[in-house]
Records
---
Amino acid sequence: MENTVYDVIIVGAGASGLLCARECARGGLKTLVLEKEQLPGRKILASGNGRCNLTNARVAPAFYHGNEKLLSTVLSQFTYENCRRYFEELGILLVEEELGRIFPQTGKATAVLEPLKLAAQESGAEILTGQTVSKIKRGKNFSIATQTNQSFQARRVVLACGSCAYPQIGGSAGGYELARALGHTIIPPRPTLSGLVLKENFSRLTGVRAQVKLHVQNAQTQGEIIFTNYGINGPAALNASGVITRKLDGGNVPIQLNFLPEIADAPAFFNARLKLFSHRKPKDFFAGVLHESIANLLIDFKGLRKNKPMNEQSPAAVKSAFETVSNWPVTVTALRPWNEAMVAAGGVNTREINYNTFESLRCPGVYVTGELLDVDGQSGGFNLHFAWASGFAAATHLTQEK
Ligand SMILES: Cc1cc2nc3c(=O)[nH]c(=O)nc-3n(C[C@H](O)[C@H](O)[C@H](O)COP(=O)(O)OP(=O)(O)OC[C@H]3O[C@@H](n4cnc5c(N)ncnc54)[C@H](O)[C@@H]3O)c2cc1C
């Protein structure tokens, strides 16, 4: 094997690397994938709670943080329709769930990983596992050394090493080091798609779910949050985490929770309700509108007297309570750490990447794809879509320049 010169060596048998390998091999390139774990695609298997939310019918740059030019180019080259057809042609039945999220019909992530891996191998790609790439040397060909002291030669290299998120299933900073050694700058990775740690103590709400609009400065997300012993999690919190993680360098981040996301003017709504129910005690007044535990917290927070009807409360306290329901201020002090963050914001600087081909502008012949790049998407299938799309774009260029 030491004398073989591969057309392309792909570092990382994750989402991006496997799809790229299949396309390179299918295009006639002698292709080797080196994977440090004993099994390929561990994050694919963990994704979507083991169900693999592999893309989204709404894929568009608006669902991502990152270089807009690169995103609009790659997402128009490999659209949602392209992605769906690609996986259907691998023999996978897909179903669409709410908010455009696409899953394999079996409800198992193996239904995505296995056909993709098989297709790569059937096209002729070799996959070697248990091989951590530790060094890439440029020369006439690239010389790729692994931690087990093996050495491989290739004309081209694809770095598809993913990010340092979720180290317990193989996330590592190794890809950043390889890219840095080849001349790239790394935007410091930060956890994203992770729970929000709040300064305020909401532990009495642990386990409570609520539909909210979550405002963070000029951005907002909408959906479910789940209160936890540290703060909040759930789709609306996760989707806000991409904006918040970038602001946390400047200190704590104030956010507001609107517990009546479908009501345009909460104070007006409650004032109208007062006309009907002013004889009720606060807990009964809010029943049917707010979760009981949230109502109790609001009553304590605003100093409403529990045993008095609404029409005997202080008008200022009532006004403040009504306003707070749609504009509850809380403070994010941190995101949950890497072992709970599904994705990394940051990574290889995309200004150093050709956004049509994903070839490095710093080290020609090297390609960088997937989550190793400074691109991160919201939850809902967008991150896997980017991993597939960028792997596809790199393979398209590699096979064309053959
Ligand atoms: C728990 C969890 C749930 C998720 N759910 C979803 C979801 O439902 N939908 C969605 O779109 N996204 C989801 N994501 C995110 C998604 O899984 C990733 O964005 C995606 O896998 C990134 O693809 P990638 O190919 O860039 O990296 P990865 O899939 O992480 O693959 C990188 C591979 O490179 C290998 N590697 C790294 N360094 C080296 C080295 N030096 N030598 C050899 N091999 C190396 C790694 O072991 C790994 O196998 C989830 C992530 C997690 C952690």
Note: The chain has three domains: 5-192+338-400, 196-261+329-335, 266-325.
---
Amino acid sequence: MGAINEIAARLLETGEAKVVIGYGEGSFGSVRPAFARNQEEAEKLIYDKRCTQNLAMYVYKKEISPLRKLAIVANVSTLRGIIRLASENQIKNGDIITLYINELGEVIECKALSEIEICLAEITPEIKPEDKELIDKLDAMTPQERWNFWISEMESCIKCYACRQACPLCYCTQCAVEVNQPQWIPVAANTSGNLEWHITRAMHLSGRCVECGQCGEACPVNIPIHLLPIKLAEEIKNIYGTVSGMKIQESNTLSTFKPDDKENFIG
Ligand code: SF4
Ligand code: SF4
């Protein structure tokens, strides 16, 4: 049994956690989220380079939330998701034990949110080289070319909302797309409705996105939809010098202001 299994088994046995959220073997060589409630299930948890999913999206689900205190196996994206959720008051200090697996494969058990911040202080967040390449390509386009690119991509959107479901920060109990009085966003998957949906989502995620790329990973028609919030995160870092999900107190960039903020974008 590896370290992650031993720690998970201990936390469940001592009652420190009612459930350990981690990864398990899926079908056809894939991994899937796994929820260990006892020693036998803890033994089946795995962790390897395939475990890229941001598991922070489970901590507030109605089926999981009552099981707090819970433990969660965490990669860097998951750590950032947890810190971001804490900054939005979705997680309280002491609700979650985080089992962070660092680059050396060591498991670091964090029982307080401040311990997660200490782990993150050692990390420089990076986006995937292939995402950086496509963002650079889009930056080099004219506004019309960029518009054409996104219109063409969004035409294939089937409005399945898998991107929303995969995101640790799309936790509203009623999404704007499901409100029908008034109907803010058309239900049908058509060009203008798709555009409205994705612009709305990108704006809701701006300054909050933790750049995990899970929304794009989840898309069944391979729209690189994660590039919109990731590009906005890059812009926010350049303008305000802040990065979401690294420190609880420095996360709310677009909902805070200073009296001496520049206002040269007005009029
Ligand atoms: S990359 Fe996508 S899934 Fe990940 S936090 Fe940002 S918007 Fe959510
Ligand atoms: S996952 Fe893809 S197809 Fe589904 S709503 Fe999101 S962008 Fe559209």
Note: The longest strand covers residues 19-25.
